[in-house]
From TrEMBL, chain A:
<dbReference type="InterPro" id="IPR002915">
    <property type="entry name" value="DeoC/FbaB/LacD_aldolase"/>
</dbReference>
<dbReference type="InterPro" id="IPR011343">
    <property type="entry name" value="DeoC"/>
</dbReference>
<keyword id="KW-0456">Lyase</keyword>
<comment type="similarity">
    <text>Belongs to the DeoC/FbaB aldolase family. DeoC type 2 subfamily.</text>
</comment>
<dbReference type="Pfam" id="PF01791">
    <property type="entry name" value="DeoC"/>
</dbReference>
<dbReference type="GO" id="GO:0016052">
    <property type="term" value="P:carbohydrate catabolic process"/>
</dbReference>
<dbReference type="GO" id="GO:0005737">
    <property type="term" value="C:cytoplasm"/>
</dbReference>
<keyword id="KW-0704">Schiff base</keyword>
<dbReference type="GO" id="GO:0004139">
    <property type="term" value="F:deoxyribose-phosphate aldolase activity"/>
</dbReference>
Automatic annotation (TrEMBL), chain B:
<dbReference type="GO" id="GO:0016620">
    <property type="term" value="F:oxidoreductase activity, acting on the aldehyde or oxo group of donors, NAD or NADP as acceptor"/>
</dbReference>
<protein>
    <submittedName>
        <fullName>Aldehyde dehydrogenase family protein</fullName>
    </submittedName>
</protein>
<keyword id="KW-0560">Oxidoreductase</keyword>
<dbReference type="InterPro" id="IPR016161">
    <property type="entry name" value="Ald_DH/histidinol_DH"/>
</dbReference>
<feature type="domain" description="Aldehyde dehydrogenase">
    <location>
        <begin position="48"/>
        <end position="476"/>
    </location>
</feature>
<dbReference type="InterPro" id="IPR016163">
    <property type="entry name" value="Ald_DH_C"/>
</dbReference>
<dbReference type="InterPro" id="IPR015590">
    <property type="entry name" value="Aldehyde_DH_dom"/>
</dbReference>
<feature type="domain" description="Aldehyde dehydrogenase">
    <location>
        <begin position="498"/>
        <end position="698"/>
    </location>
</feature>
<dbReference type="InterPro" id="IPR016162">
    <property type="entry name" value="Ald_DH_N"/>
</dbReference>
Length: 317, 730
């Protein structure tokens, strides 16, 4: 289901691409407010965009009490994210989520549960969520997850490097992680809620892309503030600028904080307006979420049946 | 019927057009509209058709107002005014709140109507158009509630005439009339001929909410109707329209001389510095094209630092390609139609002429709708300040892009314009941005933002964009002056009278003294204090001369007191912050007008002159003053005092001679920013006519006992506010 996509070849560290960046916070806030107000979706169009959101979801469980059985249940939902009658009502035959995202020790269970589905398994790694483990251990964790069968690795960066503007340390760390990821696509989690400013978000995003990240991702879901639209706008503009300089097409993954169907639409509108239609495919856009799917399913059932839906009628994730 | 599966391929937004059924039903019910006078619609006689500019379809027929209709409306407004003003403040406040609530309740009806009538996208008819109309009434209700406490004994301008521009008609109407109603005044409104329906709907809502009959009157019509209103016996006139129409209104209103606020065309610059958030600046250009770029504040001249001109142009071009131009009723439309076919044709011709001169027009938007007053968003590259388009109001989604090398050059280019509506400044350097904001000759400066409006900070205008304050305080009439004591006429002095030829020299000297405006207010206060002290030292001597010439010796003491107060005021107040949005500093910065020409009354030869000159210079203006012919020696004394007190040369030049003739020379001098004339009504009317070309504010206080005049009122005439918007957020 998920298309293969050319990897980001990376670029030698070049701070001149980001050191002079100016990001005006009120202007970014005004832009995202305007954007979502100006582009509305109704009826079939809204339903289609919600289905598309499902295609882009990295269905996620990252909890301390995860078990193999719990992961298997999540994978079953990823294979069949909508009840059959909803799918039929929408006139669709097949639909899966973009990926399933788990801790490294759960990768094996997820791979088994998804066998034959074509759904990739993504694993967080590198001492998720804080990332404050010795680098060799973090790299070893990546290798472990890849060996277990993860096709995508979501790494976390060392926030201190950003806060101290130590760009070469940040670049070296991410480049080493990219190398350890091997054939697996690498998503760099910037933990934007801990970077302090939109300018820092832009800088960290640019270093991550120069170091070879295939995707840039907002958050672990564990920070006090996770994905927001202004942060996402800033990161999307960074990947646009990186693409303009290198020709590489980088993906974007907001994570944490997207809980409602309305959120799913808002972020897709952002991608469509700032980047265009290609960034509405799972190859270039993912949503990291756990509870979002439930709300989308309710909305879609209502679209199909005309009744307000009850989650008790939908399969648990 | 398109399927979900198909949409999943294209990921299009789909249609989102609103169906304004309620509006169509309302239009059908009314059919042909009369004027709204004294709380009811009149029978309609001579009619004109109102078109939807997006389709050309006729929406309704409205009456073409005649001078008789204006007279009837004016009579209704006069009849209602005393009763309206006599209501308790709380009752008037409650009436305005009720109006705001009802507008909010009818939001989708009103927005739909405004969109059909003007071609503005429905989203913008909701916000800012309707949202700011609601806000204007709510804000004005607050002023109404505080009136007695804040302004005890102040009467309003009784009847205000309002002429509206077509863009954002709800906001335009509410912004003009809400403060007037709050103050206790009544209004006669002539809406724009292209877009009269929103005003008629609001009038109907006024009646529904129980606003007393005659408080709000609407007369529809055309340019002649507007001029008939301008020429009527009004106490105040708020006129919005083109600059040419504004000149005509100035002439038409010259005889009655109502307090005048003009809101005319613009050609507003956006200055993009190398350290700007370029994406934000690009969005600013687009956001500035609210109402299709037809507001005077819309960014029409993009001035971009050479260092970032290339990436800025590329980003802006890419952004323009994403604009959706089309059906104004569609929620996704960014740009709708212009207000009329005539406007669209005019703008297309202007662009074509500029292209013929060698400019490159970038219009990256997909094909436009085939019919209707649509103009593609256009960026014109390769123009120069000398290109006529850069001196022409565009009134559409069009801008030129020129480059600058240094901040000084940016300011020079921005200020090289006959207009002075608004500007936006894009830089992350607060030191630079605030300096640029201070140096721009526009009434509004948006720093890292654009097209933000709020009733708490009413927009001003300068140069050919207009003049005169709006807002609540402007709706209050000046306190009635105290009449002069029985004239001590005094003998004519033999001081040498200078001819008209000396005026240009005096103006030139005044221009050279521009440093006075840049001085700290504390520094100016010191000089004024020194003037008071110098006068005190020579008190006895000057008093004796006045007495000997048959004037009141007490003028000296009154003048000293005036100088002390002017010093105190110069030192006290430089503007204030307006309560607008969250995360927003809205600074109302008091600025001088420039060079003020002053012609003072004959009575009180010392005080009558000083009462105008001292507040004017306290506010940072330079003046060229024509003293009383009755006793020019008083002026000579004052001149000596000013010089020995250390007032820099050129700040105040006194030119003796035939007052009314010299005043005409001042009226005809374009470097004179404002004219104050305290003399005969006939000359006052002539001066108002004479200044129609240069569009300078003319203030004509009647001859009076200046010892009783409130100096703050004079100071208010000597200042204009610049509204500086600074959104903040880490």
């Amino acid at each position: 289901m998920t298309q293969t996509h050319p990897r980001n070849p990376g670029h030698p560290l070049d701070p001149s691409w980001f050191e002079q960046i100016a990001v005006n916070t009120p202007a970014a806030e005004a832009r995202v407010a305007d954007l979502t107000a100006r582009r509305g979706l109704t009826r079939e169009w809204q339903a289609a965009w919600l289905v598309n959101a499902i295609r882009c979801i990295d269905l996620t469980t990252l909890a301390g009490d995860d078990t193999e059985a719990r992961v298997a249940r999540l994978c079953a939902k990823a294979r069949r994210p909508l009840a059959d009658h909803i799918l039929e009502g929408l006139g669709l035959e097949a639909l899966t989520t973009g990926a399933v995202c788990v801790y490294p020790t759960m990768v094996g269970a997820a791979v088994r549960a998804l066998a034959g589905s074509g759904i990739p398994v993504a694993s967080v790694a590198t001492g998720f969520p804080a990332g404050l483990m010795p680098l060799p251990l973090r790299l070893a964790e990546i290798r472990y997850a890849v060996e277990e069968g993860a096709a995508e690795i979501d790494i976390v960066i060392t926030r201190a490097h950003v806060l101290r503007a130590d760009w070469s340390a940040l670049y070296d760390e991410i480049a080493a992680m990219r190398e350890a990821s091997g054939a697996a696509h690498m998503k760099a989690i910037l933990a934007t809620g801990e970077l302090g400013s939109l300018a820092n978000v832009y800088r960290a995003a640019m270093v991550a892309m120069q170091a070879g990240a295939d995707f840039i991702k907002t958050s672990t879901g564990k920070e006090a503030v996770n994905a927001t639209l202004p942060v996402s706008l800033t990161m999307v503009r960074a990947l646009r600028d990186y693409g303009a300089r290198t020709g590489a097409r980088i993906g974007f993954k907001p994570a944490g904080g997207l809980r409602t169907a309305k959120d799913a639409l808002a972020w897709q509108i952002l991608m469509r307006e700032e980047m265009g239609r290609d960034w509405l495919t799972p190859a270039l856009f993912r949503i990291g979420a756990s509870s979002l799917l439930g709300d989308i399913e309710r909305q879609l059932e209502q679209h199909v049946t005309g009744r307000f839906a009850s989650s008790s009628r939908h399969a648990l994730a | 019927m398109v399927t979900v599966k198909e949409i999943l391929e294209t990921m299009d937004y789909g249609p989102g057009a609103e169906n304004p059924a309620e509006v169509r039903a309302w239009l059908a019910t009314h059919g042909r509209f009369g004027h709204f006078i004294a709380g009811a619609f009149t029978a309609s006689s001579a009619v004109r058709a109102v078109q939807n500019p997006a389709t050309g379809a006729v929406l309704a027929e409205v009456a073409r107002g005649s001078a008789e209709d204006i007279a009837a409306a004016l009579a209704a407004a006069r009849a209602a005014q005393a009763g309206w003003a006599a209501l308790p403040d709380q009752a008037r406040a409650e009436a305005l709140h009720a109006l705001a609530r009802q507008l909010q309740k009818r939001a989708s009806f009103l927005a739909g109507l405004a969109t059909l009538d003007t071609g503005t996208p429905i989203r913008e008819s909701r916000d800012p158009d309707l949202a700011q109309a609601v806000r204007a009434f709510q804000h004005a209700a607050g002023h109404a509630a505080l009136r007695g406490m804040d302004h005890p004994g102040r009467a309003p301008h009784a009847v205000t005439g309002v002429v509206l521009a077509p863009a954002l008609p709800l906001m335009g109407l509410a912004t003009a009339i809400a403060p007037v109603l709050a103050a206790g005044g009544t209004v006669v409104v002539v809406p724009a001929p292209e877009a009269p329906l929103a005003a008629l709907a609001v009038a109907e809502i006024c009646a529904e909410t129980g606003l007393p009959a005659g408080v709000v009157n609407i007369v529809t019509g055309d340019a002649d109707t507007a001029l008939a209103l301008a020429g009527a016996d009004l106490d105040r006139l708020i006129f919005a329209g083109t600059t040419e129409a504004g000149r005509a209104a100035r002439r038409a209103s010259a005889a009655h001389g109502p307090a005048l606020s003009l809101r005319l065309d613009g050609s507003s610059p956006a200055l993009v510095f190398p350290d700007a958030d370029l994406d934000a600046a690009v969005e600013g250009v687009v956001a500035g094209w609210r109402a299709g770029g037809q507001l005077p504040s819309a960014g029409a001249r993009l001035l971009v630092a050479e260092a970032v001109a290339e990436p800025f142009t590329a980003r802006l071009t890419a952004r323009l390609a994403k604009l959706q131009v089309g059906d104004p009723l569609a929620r996704g439309s960014d740009i709708g139609a212009l207000v009329s076919e005539a406007e669209a044709t005019r703008l297309a011709a202007l662009i074509a002429a500029t292209e013929a001169e060698g400019a490159v027009a970038l219009r990256p938007v997909d094909p436009l709708p085939e019919t209707g007053a649509f103009v593609a968003p256009t960026l014109l590259l390769g123009t120069a300040p000398a290109t006529p388009l850069n001196a022409t109001p565009l009134r559409g989604p069009v801008a030129t892009l020129m480059t600058f090398r240094t901040p000084a050059e940016a300011v020079e280019l921005a200020n090289a314009s006959r207009f002075g509506a608004a500007a936006s400044v894009w830089s992350e350097n607060i030191t630079l941005a605030t300096d640029i904001a201070a140096r721009l000759h526009t009434a509004t400066v948006w720093i890292n933002s654009t097209a933000i409006f709020d009733a708490a900070a009413p927009a001003g205008a300068r140069r050919d964009s207009g003049f005169g304050a709006t807002g609540f305080e402007a709706a209050l009439a000046p306190r009635p002056p105290r009449a002069l004591p029985e004239a001590a006429t005094g003998g004519l002095d033999a001081a040498p009278a200078s001819g008209p030829g000396t005026i240009p020299g005096a103006v030139e000297a005044a221009q050279k003294a521009a440093g006075w405006a840049k001085m700290s207010s504390h520094g100016r206060a010191q000089v004024l204090r020194s003037i008071a002290e110098t006068l005190s030292r020579r008190h006895t001597e000057i008093a004796a001369r006045l007495h000997d010439a048959g004037h009141d010796a007490g003028e000296v003491a009154a003048t000293i007191e005036l100088a002390v107060r002017a010093a105190a005021l110069a030192d006290a107040d430089a503007g204030h912050l307006a309560a607008t949005g969250a995360q927003m500093q809205t600074l109302l910065r008091a600025e001088p007008l420039g060079v003020i020409g002053i012609a003072s009354q004959n009575a009180q030869p010392l005080l009558g002159l000083a009462a105008l000159v001292l507040p004017a210079i306290a506010a940072g203006n330079r003046v060229v003053a024509i003293p009383a012919e009755a006793f020019p020696a008083a002026a000579t004394e004052l001149a000596q005092v000013l010089a020995s007190a250390g007032l820099p040369a050129g700040v105040a030049t006194l030119v003796s001679g035939p007052r009314d003739a010299l005043a005409s020379v001042l009226a005809g001098h374009d470097e004179v920013a404002a004219l104050w004339y305290c003399g005969t009504p006939e000359t006052a009317a002539r001066l108002r006519t004479d200044t129609a070309a240069s569009l300078k504010p003319v203030w004509c206080p009647v001859p009076q006992d200046w010892a009783a005049a409130p100096i703050r009122a004079t100071l208010a005439e000597a200042q204009q506010h610049k509204t500086i918007w600074l959104p903040y957020g880490a």
